[in-house]
Every structure is written in C-alpha cells, then in structure tokens.
C-alpha cells in the first residue's frame, strides 16, 4: 500500500477551494476590528483545516523564494525519493 497514492488529491480545483484565504491587508491598513477578525479566521483555519493561504501578508517575495528553495533542499536531503 502506498499512502501517497492512496491519499493523493484527485481534484485539485476542489481541494484548492477548501483552503481558507485570509487577507491580512486590513490589519496592516489599520482597519477597525481587523486584528480581531483576522486572528479569529486564522485560529479557525489552524484548528479546523490545519493551514491557510495568507494574502497581503507583507513578506517580501524574495524572502519567500529563498525560503522555498531552502525548504526544498531540506526535503531532498531527508526524503530524496519523494518527487517535488
């Protein structure tokens, strides 16, 4: 039994539609009540889904790219047989 194949996503569109998208823009824009609202959405996503997509988070694209490269390198060291 191959768990990766058994539990693989078959419908990527449906899977993507279930990922919570949280917009951090209102927090950085100083909108009243935004911090509480975003924190509540993040908590719900983390407790019920396990992750979320952060929109307008303010992290520079260059840092994201470097982090992704490093993370991929670590995965390849730890599990070279898993395709990335």
Number of helices: 5
Write down how many β-strands occur, each being a DSSP E stretch of 2 or more residues. 2
**SSE arrangement, N to C:** HHEHHEH
SS class? mainly alpha
Unreliable stretches (pLDDT < 50, length at least 5) are none
What does the main sheet amount to?
Answer: 2 strands, parallel
Q: What gross morphology would you assign?
A: extended
Percent of residues in beta strands?
5-15%
- What's the rounded overall pLDDT mean? 87
Radius of gyration, CA atoms, in whole angstroms: 17 Å
Distance between the termini: 21 Å
Q: Strands of the biggest beta sheet: in what spatial order?
A: 1-2
Q: Specify the helix fraction band.
A: 55-70%
Sequence-ordered SSE layout with sheet pairings:
Blueprint: H1 3-6, H2 12-17, E1 21-23, H3 25-28, H4 34-48, E2 53-55, H5 61-78
Parallel strand pairs: 1-2
Features:
two-stranded parallel ribbon; about 80 residues; 2 strands; mainly alpha; 5 helices; about 5% strand
Report on this model:
The protein has 84 residues and is mainly alpha-helical. It has a domain at 3-58. 56% of the residues lie in helices and 7% in strands. It contains five helices and two strands; from the N terminus they run H-H-E-H-H-E-H. The protein has helices at residues 3-6, 12-17, 25-28, 34-48, 61-78; strands at residues 21-23, 53-55. It has a two-stranded parallel sheet. The protein is extended. The two termini are 21 Å apart. The model has no long low-confidence stretch (mean pLDDT 87).
């Amino acid at each position: 039994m191959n768990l990766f194949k058994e539990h693989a996503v078959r419908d990527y569109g449906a899977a993507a539609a279930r990922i919570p998208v949280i917009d951090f823009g209102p927090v950085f824009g100083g909108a009243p009540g935004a911090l509480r609202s975003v924190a509540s959405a993040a908590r719900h996503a983390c407790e019920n889904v396990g992750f979320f997509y952060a929109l307008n988070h303010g992290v520079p694209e260059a840092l994201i790219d470097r982090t992704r490269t490093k993370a991929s390198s670590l995965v390849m060291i730890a599990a070279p047989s898993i395709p990335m």
